Amino acid sequence: MKKLIESQQYRQALDLVNRQRSICDQITFNLALKACTKLNDYQYGIRIHQQLSLEALENPFIQTSLIHFYMQCHDIDQAHKIFSTIKNKTASMYGAMFKGYISNNMPEKVTELFEKISIEINEVVITMLFNACAKLCNSHTIKIGRDTLNRLPTSFLRHSILVNSAIDMLMKFGDVNRAEVLFEKIKKKDIVTYGAMMQGYVTNNLSEKALDLFEKISMKPNEVLSTIVFNACASLSNEKAVQLGKKIFDEMPKGYLNNIVLVTSAIDMFMKFGEIESAEYLFSQIKQKNSYSYGAMMQGYVKNNLSEKALDLFEKIPMKPTDVLYTIVYNACASLSNEKAVQLGKKIFDEMPKGYLDNIVLVTSVMHMFMKFGEIEIAEDLFSKIKQHSPYTYGVMIHGYKTHQEPQKCLSLFEQMKKENLTIDEAICVALVGACSQIGIRSICQNIVRQIALPQSKIYVQNALIDMWGKSGDIDQAKQIFQSISQPEIITYNSMINAYARNGMGYEAINLYNKIPENIRDKISHICVLNACSHSGLIDQAQMIFNKIDKKSEEIVTTMIDCLSRMAMFDQAQQLIDDYEKSNSPYLIMYSAILSGARNHRHIALSEEIFNQMRLLFPNEKSALISASVLLSNTYSSLGNDQQVEAIRMDRIKELGKNVKVGVSWTEVNGQLVRFQAHDRSHPQSDKIYAELERLSNELREHGHEYDSTWVTRPLKTEETIESALCGHSEKLAIAFNFIQYPRPSFIQITKNLRVCGDCHRATKLIAKIRQCEIIVRDANRIHHFHTNGQCSCQDHF
Questions:
Q1: Rounded to whole angstroms, how far apart are CA atoms 629 and 39?
Q2: Which of 117, 184, 501, 767 suits a disulfide with 532, CB 3.0-4.6 Å?
Q3: Which of 104-108, 177-181, 222-226, 706-710 has the lowest mean pLDDT?
């Protein structure tokens, strides 16, 4: 019987018990229980248990074997019942309970039971305790693990399994230094000890140390050690790691390729190295693929921007997908966001098991996917169903809202996070800075920056802050950050030049552009400086810069066309288009730039010509054609041709639909961000707002302002006048709302989603002067600083 057990012939051992049951003693039954445990044969084990005599049930060896058996068969209650009835418990019994709790993923029960132990414990029990503490890693178990380790005599260092579990525990605690001290105390280190240290280094993002230690090992690496090396090399993916990873892989015995865990880690490593073909070859050699090997391949494809391949592979998986595979496929769909990805992502989501909400990583990946699809309401619904939120779930929603230009919702979630006392991590902080950039109101930016812990020494954070302050009209703050950077990168230069451009500081933008080392200037640098010239009317400087650019991308050419069109240099602008199209397909934005310039200069013939060309060249670009028809309509309106305006409007509705962007403005009052739509009467203080508008209108007329009917771009309603139509523009409502506050403000800031109309621009200059109030308005194109002397920073280049 014993020989059968030792040779792992468990079923034959049980058959022998069946044949010789009448002469079986306690030793035989104990061996039979061990066979049942190995086979997970629950029914046979119960029969043996029922046949045991009262004397046998008092045998501590049989009691321990029964605990092992029931734990292995997941009958924890029965194991606990047997254990609780034993009066004289041994260390082996505690060890059996501990091992059972760990194998059944109940490590917290180990620490609970450990605190009740009243007998002397052995190294097996302590090893199990350390394993449980390593799995839990909370403040309570960290204390138990450390205290127990401190009390151990040095003689325990002879037990390599215990020491290895202690090293693993300390590494899981993040106590790397103490693990290193313990490691150095071991006189005879085995390969498992080295593996525990190396795995600990990898877990603590110290893969360099793992590889350094590996190179000191004199013995040949086994499969476990090779797997750890591959994981370390994958996490680093630098030149040294690539060389070592390939060397170990090439030198390892071919038999290692039968170890699917090792092969999966090798696939992950090659994918991290960008060696797709090597990973694909390895994957093809796996005879029995599992969810981990499929996951490694799919994740590798996603990381290497081959999400199409990830989706193709997912559709070939024969087994039921795990939560990890679902998460990867959602990430692949999100990264693609094309028609196939949208259909597949939605289909998989509809077929998901109901319990998916319990997996926070999975549900977060679903939210991310729907945000990328633009299905914001579905993402919001999922978010609302999550019972226990984390910074990760909030982060996905905040990033999604920022992507879809909904910064107010970003700030609203930030307030919720504060109420829930959740950690605002670095990624969320940077996303909030991005949301503030979109809002573009200085007081909001100041308030958020004060509340978040930004690592301001990091260059990407500094770049984000320069962009934010530039877009909120605080050029001094942007400049201060820029000047504090000793080694600006190209993004830093570009952010600062763009800040100058938006704020009408063309000369400053050119000066900084000229200071950029020529070897790091990029396409964005050229676009930003040309845009600065365009917004400041610096046409000669723009042409000089443009002529020196070797590689003129479509965006660079478009920016130059915009610059020429703003200065009514339409022949030169058209020539650029003609030259570009000699070797390239027509580019829609170039035509939009000329059309915008033609509208500004009321050039009706050119407007008609460009619009007709756009309809011919870009018939499927509905959104762009709607915007173009509005510009053409505005051109006719500026010349007083109301009949043609109406004809274009009717044609637009018939051909393209009514999808015309509504003017919206935001302003901040008393810490609150307030939104106004054109002719908005939804605000609770609307009566006061419109009364203030009337007062402002009277003051404007008294100071010689005449409302310009050419900026009324739609038919007037019966009860409307030119004055009421223009006074209903969203930025004028925002200005009036500020002026009904007490005390009356000396500074107002507004962000608008559309370009400021000519009438609002002239009126705001006058309002700033009459009310002696600095007003900043950021529109779709630039930032206007209206000063109390009645002048605007744009010098009317808008």
A1: 77
A2: 501
A3: 706-710
Reading phi first (left if > 0) and then psi (alpha if -120 to 50, else beta), residue 707 is in beta
Q: What H or E segment, with its residue span, contains residue 747? A: strand 747-752
- For residue 585, the 8-state DSSP code is -
pTM: 0.83
Average pLDDT, integer, range 398-411: 96
Count Cβ neighbours within 10 Å for each residue of 514-551 and write b for 16 or more, e otherwise.
eebeeeebeebbbbbbbbbbbbbbbbebbbebbeebee
Instruction: Decide: helix, strand or coil at residue 618.
Output: coil
Residues 190-223: tens digit of each pLDDT: 999 999 999 999 999 999 999 999 999 999 999 9
Please spell the DSSP secondary structure of 95-123, one letter per residue. HHHHHHHHHTT-HHHHHHHHTT--S---H
Regarding the domain delimited by 552-660, which CATH topology (the fold level of the hierarchy) does it fall under?
1.25.40
Residue 626 structure tokens: 């709607």
Concatenate the DSSP letters of all residues of 413-447 into one string: HHHHHHHTT----HHHHHHHHHHHHHH--HHHHHH
How many whole angstroms from its chain centre is CA 352? 23
Both tokens of 625, joined, read 């054609």
What digits encode the pLDDT tens for the residues 99-154? 999 999 999 999 999 999 988 889 999 999 999 999 999 999 999 999 999 999 88
Predicted pLDDT of residue 653: 58
What does the domain layout of the chain look like in residue ranges?
552-660, 664-786
Amino acid at 188: K
Residue 647 has pLDDT above 80, yes or no: no
Edge-to-edge strand ranges of the sheet holding 747-752: 672-677, 664-669, 747-752, 774-778, 783-786
Omega into 743 within 30° of 0, i.e. cis? yes
Contacts of 220 (CB under 8 A, 6+ apart): none
